[in-house]
Amino acid sequence: MARLADYFVVVGYDLDKRGGSEGQGRIHQRFPEKDWEDNPFPQGLELFCQPNGWQLVPERKPPSFFVAVLTDINSERHYCACFTFWETVENPQLLKGESSEADEDDGPGLLQPAQLYAPRSLVLVSRLDHSEVFRNCLSLIYTVHVDGLHVPMETVIGNLLTCIIPIAGGSQRTITLGAGDRQVIQTPINDSLPVSGCSVALLFRQLGILNVLCLFCAALTEHKILFLSSSYQRLTDACRALLAIMFPLKYSFTYIPILPGKLLEVLSTPTPFIIGVNSIFRSETQELLDVIIADLDGGTVTIPECVNISPLPEPLLHHTQTAISMVLDPELEVADHAFPPSIQASSLKIQDKEIRAIFLWLFAQLFQGYRWCLHIIRIHPEPVIRFYKAAFLGQRALSEDDFLMKVLDGMAFAGFVSERGPPYRTTDLFDDLIASQVERIRQETGNSQKVMKHVKELAEQLFKNENPYPAVAMHRVQRTAEKAQPRVPQTSFPPLDEVGVQLFIDHAAAKLITAPPVVKSELKGLVPAGPPLADIVDRNGNVLANSARRLEVVRNCITYIFDNKMLEAKKLMPAVIRALKGRAARVCLTQELNQHVLQNRAVLDDQQFDYIVRMMNCTLQDCSHMDEHGIAAALLPLVTAFCRKLGGGITQFAYSCVQEHVVWTNMPFWEAMFYSDVQKHIRSLYLENEEEGDASTNDSEGGQQQVSALELASEQSRLWPTLSKEQQQERVQKEESTVFSQAIHYANRMSYLLLPLDTSKNRMLRNTGLGDVESVSNSYVTNSIAGSMAESYDTESGFEDAECSDVANSVVRFINRFVDKVCNESGVTNEHLKALHTMIPDIVQMHIETLDAVNRESKRLPPIQKPKLLRPTLLLGEEFVMEGMRVHLIADGREEATGVMGGPPLLPAEGAIFLTTYRIIFKGTPTDPLVGEQVVSRSFPIASLTKEKRLSGSQVSVPLDQLIQEGLQLRSCTFQLMKIAFDEEVASDLAEVFRKHVHKLRFPQHVQGTFAFTVGQSAKLVVEHKTKDKNQSLRTLSKNLVKTAKRTIGRQHVTRKKYSPPTWENRSSLQSEIDEDEISVSEEPDQSSLTLSSTIRSSDRQTMSNAVERACCRDYQRLGLGTLSSSLTRSKNEPFRISTVNRMYTVCRSYPGLLIVPQSIPDSTIQRISRCYRQNRFPVVCWRNSRTKAVLLRSAGLHTKGVVGFFKSPNATTSGPSQADSTSLEQEKYLQAIISSMPSYSEASGRNTLSGFTSSHMSTSDSSDKLRQPKIGALMKQVMGAKEDAPGTFSRGGKWGSIRGSGRLSMYNPDVGNRLAEKESPQANGGPAEPYFLRQKRAYLYIIGDKSQLKGGKQDSFQQWEVVPIEVFDIRQVKNSFKKLMKACVPSSTNNDQNMTFHRCLEESEWMNLLHRLLQVSVLVVELLDNGSSVMVSLEDGWDVTTQVVSLVQLLSDPYYRTIDGFRLLVEKEWLSFGHRFSHRGAQTLASQSSGFTPVFLQFLDCVHQIHLQFPMEFEFSQYYLKFLAYHYVSNRFRTFLLDSDYERIELGVLYEEKGERRNPQVCKSVWDYIDRLNKKTPIFYNYMFSPEEEEVLKPYSFISNLKVWDFYTEETLSEGPSFDWELVRGRQEKPLEEAGERMDTTAPKSQRRIVWPCYDSLSKEVPDAITKLLQDVQNLESELGQPTEKWKETWDKIKTAQRVESRLESKHSFSSSLLMSSNLSHQRRSQGVYLQESGVGSSINLALDCEVNTTSTPAAGRPSTSTLYSQFQSTESENRSYEGILYKRGALLKPWKPRWFVLDKTKHQLRYYESRQDKVCKGLIELGEVESVIMGTPAMGAPKNIDDKAFFDLKTTKRVYNFCAQDSTNAQLWMDSIQSCLSDA
Fold this sequence. Notes:
Elements: E1 2-3, E2 7-13, E3 25-31, H1 45-49, E4 64-71, E5 77-90, H2 92-96, H3 101-104, E6 115-126, H4 131-147, H5 153-161, E7 164-165, E8 172-175, E9 182-186, H6 199-207, H7 209-220, E10 224-229, H8 232-245, E11 254-256, E12 273-278, E13 291-295, E14 300-302, H9 316-328, H10 348-366, E15 374-378, E16 384-387, H11 389-395, H12 402-409, H13 411-420, E17 424-425, H14 429-444, H15 448-466, E18 475-476, H16 498-514, E19 525-526, H17 533-540, H18 548-562, H19 566-579, H20 583-598, E20 603-604, H21 606-621, H22 631-639, E21 643-646, E22 650-653, H23 667-690, H24 709-719, H25 725-754, H26 763-767, H27 780-796, H28 802-825, H29 830-860, E23 880-890, E24 909-916, E25 919-926, E26 936-941, E27 945-952, E28 966-972, E29 976-982, H30 988-1002, H31 1011-1014, H32 1019-1024, H33 1041-1049, H34 1101-1109, H35 1111-1119, E30 1136-1139, E31 1155-1158, H36 1163-1170, E32 1180-1184, E33 1191-1195, H37 1203-1206, H38 1217-1236, H39 1239-1243, H40 1255-1260, H41 1263-1268, H42 1272-1280, H43 1299-1302, E34 1341-1346, E35 1361-1366, H44 1371-1385, H45 1398-1405, ...
Parallel strand pairs: 10-12, 10-13, 11-12, 20-21, 33-36, 34-35, 34-36
Antiparallel strand pairs: 1-7, 2-3, 2-6, 4-5, 5-6, 8-9, 9-18, 13-14, 15-16, 17-19, 21-22, 23-24, 23-29, 24-25, 25-26, 27-28, 28-29, 30-31, 32-33, 37-38, 37-43, 38-39, 39-40, 41-42, 42-43
Helix pairs in contact: 4-5, 5-16, 6-7, 6-8, 6-10, 9-10, 10-14, 10-15, 18-19, 18-20, 20-22, 23-24, 23-25, 25-28, 25-29, 27-28, 27-29, 28-29, 42-46, 44-45, 46-47, 47-48, 47-50, 50-51, 55-57, 57-59, 59-60
């Protein structure tokens, strides 16, 4: 029973305090005046009566009513019903005759009204929420006052305050206040269910389904919610509705349905809340950043950006939405029906209950089975219950669900557990739902009709709860007559008589004391638990399906281990480890191991122990820190059971080997474990009491008949009141000591799993959550007791080793926190808690001592059997610097080798890493035993190392039986990455030594320390190598350069070119390299060497002869750019001459000695001109178009200071403008001289109009070209406007801005490029625009320059040359782009970010963009040259981009450079001689280390690769050739790509020695020699599709969409490492070839199938292309037939010529002539590969026969074509067999005799042999035309036994003698006769 109203209060406007703008309220009277003891009077009531503030108004307002809710300090809610009406007051202003400031604001013009109205509120304060009753009561009091009824007001109020009603129970009470009124109060049947009226339905109407669900989720996940409305009653209703749908959870944060304006700052509280505020204050709520605002009047919900509301898990969300819409809008389902049935929506009250029923149904699904996850840890004196969250989420398979996680962690759920957890209490609707309806809900889920039926049933119960007697609800309340004008209160509300009211209250109180006590019949009982969770999930099928087979494997493996069948166990292990990814297998493992512990088989030997620990680690590594599947929980008792005996009576337990897992440092895990163990023990405690004998069942979830702990607790709670005090006391003590003993047990357990085996390592502090144990503790004991304990522990333990005490300290603190928390929660006494705190440090200390002994002993164990370390094969001259260290090669971001993309997991692999003078090599075997016999190799040259990074233990994940300390990640610019983890046996200082050595070898002091120089010397020397001449810097010029050159001349070697150099006497004087250090170097260049005469002094001649031999000179002669006669005089009529001005490298250090310059320019001018250009790299000619005679020049950019500023620098002899002018004049003269050299210029005598500049060219090319040939203007636009593409975007089309349009070129000159880059004027009718420049003149010379450098360039007034400014990327861009490209192609770790796929990373690297720009500029230059204009490329310093462009232009324009020799020449000329800084860009020495690696040359090779892909028939070399160069230009194996210029090479004496005879012929110093040598042996560098067009100029597409990623960046071969060191890769295969041929004969026929793994095997070797295969077959056949083997090239050339002859004979233009040799293919863009007609015969067979016939007989003039030959013997059946049978044939030398089926064929004049009679494929044949004689033979060694001597005969051919043996002598005679007759017929 409870009072209907606690207080009645009259609140009015406080006239005395009026001042300022805001009035105040004042409590005039309150009854009773004394506070009730059980319910003090709430403070601040007057604020809530007028939430908008107290104000006087000029007009009377109608009375209003609302209910505000106040929450007191004990979180009890008080409902304040406010009834407000308005009374007149005289205007105080007029009375006082003065105005306050507030009214002055109103302005002088406003009249003050004489009458004002003040609010008066009647307030009822109650703890019950009966708002309708309160409304009636207060209306009655108002009516009495207004109508002046003859009822004393005191009586009414006295009756109201003394009215007592029941809280719940469904009774009804009629009350009267003594004013002739009567009303019925209905109480709800069950007060635990909220009462909602219509509020829920209204809320959904106001906001809509989604919005309310959003608010619902927000409230449950503890967000801040604010309601806005202009109606107070609606605010209260909305808040009430939100709380009602949250049932059975109760909202426990701030709840203020109506917040007064004065308290708005409450909204900035950090805690969650549900608050309602009047819309007037909307503006004040705008700046709240983390509050969800629901506007009830507007129907909107606003969620701030920073707030993320977790939605309900699907499919629950969808089901809930559907169900609610069916309630609110039942017509929706039938809206489309042609004859819709009339469906009436339920009334609001019923809808309200139906919606609440849906939420009940939702919670029943969310929380189903929650009672199975409750741990009861104390039963007496009060039940203490904890919820095991991890198990609940695990069994529901919702551990990932954000919403449920947050709900379970929230305060509301904690309250739910403490309220509903106790097993013995009264139950309500929700308990019944969980207990009995879960199954029904699950089955009906999909069926909306059944769901609605269920919902309606629930709604009915809810409705009945609120309205138990709906029929009797009748009221009779006096009200003011409504129709009549409500009577205005004439007088103000009278003061009431306190004494009269108090008398009523006292009288009622006295009555209550005498009345008999009301006995509330509470039906307590056992709360049913509902179906267990496991069943639910299994039926849903959410469990990870783990087939029985896998579980069988796990069981078998464990059985093998315990039966000591280790070999069997080892075989099963990989399968077990894979199976353990699944939950079922992990559970199975724990159960199996548990069985063995129960059978007392826990002591294991070393190998068993290793296996069991490994399986435990695998099981734990996939567990999350929550351990939602209870795996770690099940393993916890096992890790302290399994052990092995070490020496000296010491036992090592499994826990010391499974500590790495995060679950052990997770406090909630330990708590859950502790509680579940306590529950078991308390259960057994009471079970023993009840059934003394039968305590055998321990498992709480065993058979059905078992009593669960909760049932037991319920029974005990029921019996508790019946026990005597002593019994009660005894039980409490027993339970307390049970908890205490468990706490001690767990302190031990935790120290086992938290203290590392080697306590000095301090591992736990570093990697896990133990480091933050300092966090605030949640118990009051800790700070006092534990704190002091920890201090005393530190001071008294007497540790020397601080590290170790750190570990101990942190573990002690962690266990202390745990003990405090669980002991406080489970009610352990303070004495016991203190005892525990004293014990813990001792436990930890004891355990540390035990562990030290174990650690010591375990070190003595023989190490695990590890795979044998494999040694790599080394190159000649390569030596080990460090022997192999055992490491694990870990998988990086490339997935091919890990088995993710199919195939076996080759990585991780275990092996060793070796450091040699040349490479870093890993060689080992995969750790997965299924591929254990494969060998994995990864290596790269040390010189290509770009980044080395240390990896800590946590970044290294390897098989768990290995303890890894640290690792290294090595990245190389050959696109290789090695992630290695050092094995535990490798001392950490060794790893450090390895790093130092790598660094020393990667960056030698001097280039002479690189492998190319030190090859063959001792490795020791390399590492300690200090170069003698370190101080003699390369910047000084050698005065005695000539001397050096002379000395190196001895190594000269004559090439096979037209020009033969003179012979030299001092050829034999070979000096050793070491002497070179004694070159005397003068600081200043000798002045005399700078004065150059027109003829060369004799002393320089020999140097010159050497220079002449260089590639440049040979090429100049080929191009006819300048001839050197024997007297070295120049012929006057040539336009260009070879200048020797730079023979001493004095003009330009980085240019070659001989340069091509215009004939008319004297050397002295050149010296002056060179100073204008950066690095003195003045313009020189490097190529001439043989058709148009246009020349290509290269130079560096002009100095940025501008020409004028430059000449004021100190090195000029006279300063002043005169010299500057003269120099710029000389520069112009130089350019003019170049222009004059062009025949087109001289013909037109300086003026040549270009009629049809492109059109003439276009008409000659064939139609396919016409389509794709861009106009030069368009090209020019593209190149110059390239920057207008937004950087970083892939430009895919032709939209380029024009130069003029961009208006950025005015600073160079107004007319730049206007002829080429003119905007084309579109015609009016939209027809094609005609470019202006076709009608304009063309420049003779185009200068391609950098935009940023061309500011000073002066435009030629006669417009004979023109500057084309382009944007060039700088070296930094290339460097960064390359880094990103490497990361994209060889990522260091797998990338889970969906946005960073390979293609996205590739795009971000912008590598393709750079290639695109390079190709674009090159194609432009090619077009210009092809059209007769000369081009000068003058970019940056002239040695990076310039070199790339110039080389690409020559490659595209001149077919010679597309041959193997020509490409070598091109690279030697443009890259080596013209001084590309290979050493600097490759960061080859210590000096250039800081500059980093910049792959300029690689970029060039990539461009060549792109062109090769588009024109596969134009290149003599293969793609492999390009990859080979790309690899070796950074490998430092050869000297070719070392040093930065010819000058430096001469200074070191390496320039000419490559050519001379070498001391060690095995060690190639030049990459070109190596390629030549290899090319003779094997066609690996040759492109079989090479079929060039005459004078073909290539114009490749350069758009990014046309470019492909070079597979050099992405491919790898793990079986052998990179294939570019040919000796290493092919070393194993080079067995004698004929042996390979015969081997097929000896073995029985075996399967030809082989499995080829893309990332393991070398595809080109395993699956060779047809031609390579055929060439190999030819060689095999030749060797088998005993012929001298021909070189592959000769064979190939022979076939090609034969092919050409044949195609001419056939005179058909079909492609069936076998290959592409016929060059009559119409030259379309020939990137389609081989053209073969389907109808024709397969080309590979053709070629095979070709080879056979061609090599075995001399080709006759009228030889029939191969195709006719083929058709003659298509199958063995149709053949003409003159004689056949079995003969034994003797193999080649030292080979056995073999029986073969021989066929003598007269028609074809052949003796063929087959493996057997049925065999269709001929094994070999003997041409009878080559047989000289057939004679009787003698039995040779190894001949078949028991055969007549006369059965042997020999067949002698021109090439060899064949030995045969028939079955008997007659047979032999027959064969001899048949062969003889064939011969005579011929």
